[in-house]
Amino acid sequence: MTKTTDKTRLQELAHKYLQGNLTKEEKNEFDSWFNQTTDEPLEIHASYANDEQAHQHAIFDRIRKELGIVPPSRLVTLWRGIAAAILVILSVGAGLLYFKSNQPISKQTAKTNKNDIAPGNNQATLTLANGKRILLSSKDQSVYKQVADSRSGQMEFNTLTTTKGEQYQVILPDGTHVWLNAASSIRFPVSFAPSKERKVFITGEAYFEVAKDKTKPFRVVSENQLVTVYGTHFDINGYKDEAGTRTTLLEGSVDVNGTLLKPEHQAINVKGEMKVVSVDTENIIAWKNGYFRFKSETLESIMRKISRWYDVDVEFQSPALKDIEFGGVMTKYVNVSKVLEMLELTGEASFELKGRTIIIKNIK
C-alpha cells in the first residue's frame, strides 16, 4: 500500500476498528488489503491477544530488531527518525493482530483507573443574538444547522463556542460546513441576507467547506488576518499559544491578507509577517477526522493538542524535553493514558498523570 489515498483509507479503517465501528464491508476491505500485502507476516504469539500491552511491546521489539536499532539511550537521533513508523504500526497493530490470529481482542482503550481521563466529545455552547445560551451536547446532534432568518433587516450574530475537551460542527445559513476544534469559537450572522458579503469571526481552530456563491464572497476574520474565500476547503489555526496563525488550503483558492494560496500550501502569519510553505494536509486536518497525526513535531506542540482535547495541564521536568520530535498516527478516542503509553514506547521521555496534570520527565 503506497498511495497516499490508500494509506489514508487504511488509517480511517484502523481508527474505526479501534472504536469498534467497522461495518462488515469495511472489515472485508481491511482484510483484503492485509491478505494482498507482500510484506512478511508479523508473527505474534496467540497469548498476546489477551494482553494488549504485551502485544504492543512485541511489535515494538520486532521493529527494533528488523531495523537494527539500538536502544534509544545509545542512539537518540536515529530513534527520533523512526518514531513515526513505530507509532503508525502500533496504532493499527490491534487490527493486524485480529486478522492474522483470528482472535478478537479488546478495543484499544487505556487501562481504567481513577486517575485516567476520557477523551473529549461533541459538545458546544450556542449563544444566540438575544444572549440566550444553549448547550449542544453529543446526546443531541453533533451537527448544528443554522436556519437563515430573513425577517430581520439588521445583522444579528450567534456564537458557537467549545471549551477544552469539546469539538462541534455547524452548518451556516448559506450551507457552509464548519468543524470547530477544542477551545475555539465562531461568530456568524443569523442570516447573510442583509450583507453583500458572508463574514464570520473565529478564535482557535476551524475547518471550512465553503458553499459557493459568486454574488457574496465568504470572509473569515481571525487573529491579525482576513481570509477571502472563493468556494473551497481550508483550515485556520489561530490559537494564541501557537506561533502565529496558520491557514492551510486543501482545495480551491483563498486570499490571506493579500497572499493567494495554492492547494497543499500553508500561510503562516506571525504578527503581520507572512510566509508560505508546502505542507502535508493530512496532518493538518487529522483532528477533524479523529486522529492525532504528527510528523517531526516537537513534544511541546504535541502536548498543546493533547491538553486541549483532554482538558489537562502539562508540566515539563526539563526544557530540553520540549524539543524532542515525534511522528505517528493514533486515534483521539482513547483515554489519555493510552496516548501517553504510545509516546512513552519511543523511549524518549516518561509521562506521569497526576489529577488533571501530565508531568513529562527525563528517562532515568
SSE arrangement:
Elements: H1 4-19, H2 24-36, H3 52-67, H4 76-101, E1 121-122, E2 124-127, E3 133-136, E4 143-145, E5 157-161, E6 166-171, E7 177-180, E8 185-189, E9 198-209, E10 218-222, E11 225-229, E12 233-238, E13 245-251, E14 254-256, E15 259-261, E16 265-270, E17 273-278, H5 281-284, H6 286-289, E18 291-298, H7 299-310, E19 313-316, E20 325-331, H8 336-344, E21 350-354, E22 357-361
Parallel strand pairs: 1-6, 4-6, 9-10, 19-22
Antiparallel strand pairs: 2-3, 2-5, 5-8, 6-7, 7-9, 8-9, 9-12, 10-11, 11-14, 12-13, 13-16, 14-15, 16-17, 18-20, 21-22
Helix pairs in contact: 1-4, 3-4
Mean pLDDT metric:
77
DSSP E strands, number: 22
Q: Determine the CATH topology of the largest domain.
A: Jelly Rolls
Secondary-structure class: alpha+beta
Q: Tell me about the largest β-sheet.
A: 17 strands, mixed
Structure, explained:
The chain is an alpha+beta fold and about 375 residues long. It folds into three domains: about 5-100, no CATH class; about 120-285, Sandwich (Jelly Rolls); about 290-360, Phage tail protein beta-alpha-beta fold (3-Layer(bab) Sandwich). It has helices spanning about 5-20, 25-35, 50-65, 75-100, 280-285, 285-290, 300-310, 335-345; strands spanning about 120, 125, 135, 145, 155-160, 165-170, 175-180, 185-190, 200-210, 220, 225-230, 235-240, 245-250, 255, 260, 265-270, 275-280, 290-300, 315, 325-330, 350-355, 355-360. It has a 17-stranded mixed β-sheet that branches. The chain has a three-stranded mixed β-sheet with strand order 19-22-21, with helices on one face. It has a two-stranded antiparallel sheet with strand order 18-20. Helix 1 (about 5-20) crosses helix 4 (about 75-100) and helix 3 packs across helix 4 (about 75-100).
